[in-house]
Predict the 3D structure of the following.
Amino acid sequence: MNKPPYDALLVLSFGGPEKPDDVIPFLENVLRGRNVPRERMLEVAEHYYHFGGKSPINDQNRELIDALTAELAASDISLPIYWGNRNWHPLLPDAIRQMYDDGHRSVLVFVTSIFSSYSGCRQYREDIQRALNELNMTEEMSLDKIRTFYNHPDFIETMAQRVRDAIAELPEEGAQQRKVLFTAHSIPSAMAATCAYEKQLHESARLICEAVGIDDWALVYQSRSGPPQQPWLEPDVCDVIQELADQKSTRQVVLVPVGFVSDHMEVIYDLDDEAAKLSEEVGIAMSRAKTAGTHPKFVGMIRKLVEERLGLATEKQAIGKFGASHDVCPIDCCKYEPRRPAPVPPTK
């Protein structure tokens, strides 16, 4: 029997504080080496304190790992799953060291980021290389990232079901004046020019709308964190809600955080808190679709992506205009040199 090309699976994520005392050290870790005023960091810290000082992201990663462990076992895929974060415990170098100590040398990596950009893809690959360099393991271990899945049919169907559920929460009255807003994290325009981020977001939103039967929709952005003089992707979700209210053309909005894998801090603060309050103030009924999270279709999709790299799948599934993404990123893929001072970090 041929030896499988990989002997472990790593779930790689952003990380987040687990308690109030973690918040400032976490943000200092995110900002290390960056010229961001402490006042701005403290402002971001208040987002965490608003929710008790704990980000939901770590618990959601634990839930995803539990679901994925069961999914792989049900398909007789014997890959132990490890977990590492970019910015908080369990940290990526510690996870790599643990995998090495456990005897693993060829690791497949699932990054909890859907779309191609510097911060969502390339930076994670740089993190991996940096950790291997620091551990002096560049010759001993290999870690390969799973491909981007924005147009995988199971991701599209997962989000289509999430949208249907969100629509069902709204009253029948006003349904004819409903707008669906797909939200994603804004990034600097200069970063967007180096990657397929916008194109992929538009394609995912289009495919989801096609599956649900939605005609009136738009792509908007949230969580901008850069200095005012630096152009970032627009329009902002709250600005659009205000415009819709001013135009008196919309009575309902459905917010779909298509750019996020799970309901972490940015989703619950920017959408469930800020956008929800604004919608109530301007008299627009709002419903927010859940993220993919641990939806069975989404967990099954990850298993299928693993099977692709293990050589167990006969085809790479993708729908829409652009086909399946590459397994190995080109050398200049999503290349971007962040400006200094760097943008304030996203809240996870």
Notes: The beta strands are 8-13, 81-85, 106-111, 142-145, 178-185, 217-222, 252-256, 285-288. DSSP finds eleven helices and eight strands in the chain. The radius of gyration is 20 Å.
